[in-house]
Amino acid sequence: MSKPVKGVLFCLNDSDANSEHSHKLFITSWDGRPVNLHVHPFSGDTSYDVGHYHHYAGITEAAPTGVPHVHNYYAVTSFNDGHKHTIRGTTGPAFPLPEGGHYHHFEGYTTVNGAIPHTHKYAGNTGNEKNY
Question: What is the pTM of this model?
């Protein structure tokens, strides 16, 4: 079964005509219905490694409401033990909430950093959707 989809395609990282670049599609219509966008807050603490942990918080990238979707996310951790890390990834699919809305699970490992080079594991669930 196919559904007509409309959207706007953006070219990213195209500052040099010869550089590699990517595209991002923002869906504006799904099966003839307009699509609204939403984001999710997320936060948590990393695993405790090399004598410390880090806190992180952020807002996911926007995604369409009312259709199957995932969100990209990015955050920089708190500055602990003389350094910080970056977390980046893509959430899992949406899980409905009993009171309405939905959340997503996310997990991964931070970038490597520190006087003793190391990573931290992180995992959690986003908060409920925030429409705009």
Answer: 0.75
